[in-house]
Design a protein that fits this description.
The protein has helices at residues 11-14, 16-53, 59-81, 86-111, 117-141, 153-156, 192-200, 208-216, 231-271, 320-327, 336-341, 354-363, 380-385, 391-406, 410-426; strands at residues 5-6, 146-149, 163-166, 178-181, 205-207, 276-282, 288-294, 302-304, 310-312, 345-347, 376-378. The chain has 431 residues and is α/β, with parallel strands linked by helices. The protein folds into 3 domains: 14-141, no CATH class; 144-216; 228-426, no CATH class. Helix 3 runs parallel beside helix 5 (117-141).
Length: 431
């Protein structure tokens, strides 16, 4: 029997109830800590904000602080009780913050109660921070219990060790957070009752292939079909995403402009003209645009090799200053201009050089699906696999890009941005 196999008479099954009790104790500890933070620690912080504003701590202010603390607690409990992928949890966090603090703002407006803009804004920001910390704590302290039934040995070999194989149809699957199956059509009839009880208890039942896809963050190009893309969802989210891009660009420009000016000066002094590197790239709908970056290499033209790798002409090399600009990602900052005019987005598939894009599209039938959204400065493939130089590496990146298109959402974009910030801080993946 597989090391992960579990039956109702196995030693592993004997610890199911203690494991459940342990999770209940973790839930209770989290609840007590949350209450202590929201009603003992945060009121002190909000009181300090009021004191800094020079206002008295009146009865109305005290009730306003209490209401914001309640909103903080609602967000924490909502995030802790949520399940799913990281991007889904981030989306749930944003929704919980908007719902709880938005409801509080609506009550204030309708009742014309006393309120403080500083307290309400601070409370919403604190909810985001504490919610993110809660997601990290939940992933470490309360990992989901996952069972698999009716799967082939080849599928079992691909699942992580934390997934428990259940061989006894009389086992109670309600103790698990997620139940995986090899195929619902091939599921034996004696498993029907166990699976039905789990579903009635609100436990999700999913296919192993779907779970593996999400665990790896990529889709199988061999089994991908255009019907898997959320066509309506892509169109509706693009409008929201465009507004978010403009807002982020407005925030980033005051910071980026001095860095770009300094980078231009450094390139001009160290390498001379031209200061910018301009290259034709493929954008939304296959339309071409000329992408601008700071020049980081000596003169010389690049050309694609037979296997798709971008060869470097004789004498064209990354300079020491160029390597520094690349490591700090300063060479990418001029692309904010493309975000403003609509050529690019902050998050999306990386825009490819037109010559390489034509070759990749000829060899990878699914490659052109990347162009149904705006290309991005950063993207799911960039933060998961880095830069691609060969056809095989590009195939892997396209698998990541297709996963991004299939699960396009605010939560996934937020996860990509957070991963990008981590890469910028650690300077990992600089080429």
């Amino acid at each position: 029997m597989d090391a992960r196999a579990v039956s109702s008479t196995s030693p592993q099954a004997a610890v199911a109830k203690p494991a459940t009790r342990a999770r209940l104790w973790i839930d209770l500890a989290f609840g007590l800590i949350s209450v202590a933070i929201c009603f003992f620690v945060l009121p002190q912080l909000y009181g300090w904000i009021v004191a800094r504003m020079g206002g008295p701590l009146t009865r109305g202010m005290a009730w306003h602080i209490f209401a914001n603390c309640c909103a903080n607690l609602i967000v924490l409990v909502s995030v802790w009780s949520g399940q799913g992928r990281l991007d889904q949890k981030l989306s749930a966090l944003a929704s919980a913050v908007l719902a709880s603090h938005g409801a509080l703002a609506l009550v204030v407006i309708l009742t014309r109660s006393f309120y403080s803009n500083s307290i309400m804004l601070s409370a919403a920001i604190i909810s985001l921070g504490l919610g993110a910390a809660t997601i990290l704590a939940q992933r470490r302290l309360k990992p989901p219990r996952i069972a698999v039934i009716g799967a082939r040995e080849s599928t079992l070999a691909q699942l992580p060790p934390v997934v428990e194989r259940i061989d006894d149809p009389s086992a109670d699957l309600r103790h698990f957070d997620l139940v995986l199956t090899g195929s619902a059509d091939e599921l034996p009839l004696d498993w029907t009752r166990a699976v039905s009880r789990a579903m009635l208890a609100g436990k999700p039942v999913r296919h192993c292939a779907e779970y593996l896809e999400e665990a790896r963050g990529l889709v199988s190009m061999e089994h991908f079909d255009i019907d898997q893309l959320p066509d309506g969802g892509i169109r509706s989210y693009q409008a929201v995403k465009r507004a978010l891009d403009l807002a982020l660009a407005a925030i980033a420009l005051p910071i980026a402009f001095p860095l770009v000016a300094l980078g231009c000066l450094v390139v001009l002094v160290s390498m001379g003209r031209p200061v910018f590197f301009v290259q034709s790239r493929v954008g939304l709908g296959g339309r071409r645009f000329r992408m601008i970056k700071l020049r980081t290499m000596t003169s010389g033209e690049a050309r694609p090799s037979v296997e798709g790798r971008m060869a470097v002409a004789e004498g064209q090399r990354v300079t020491p200053i160029g390597a520094l600009l690349r490591r700090l990602r300063i060479d990418e900052l001029p692309q904010l201009w493309h975000v403003l005019i609509g050529d690019m987005s902050f998050v999306g598939p990386r825009p490819e050089w037109t010559l390489l894009a034509e070759r990749y599209a000829a060899q990878l039938p699914q490659y052109d699906y990347r162009h149904v959204v705006r290309p991005g400065i950063t993207g799911w493939a960039q933060v998961r696999s880095g830069y691609a130089g060969t056809l095989q590496e590009t195939r892997l990146k396209v698998s990541y890009d297709l996963y991004y298109l299939k699960h396009l959402s605010l939560g996934l974009d937020l996860q990509i941005l957070l991963r990008t910030i981590f890469v910028l801080i650690t300077t990992r993946g600089a080429r």
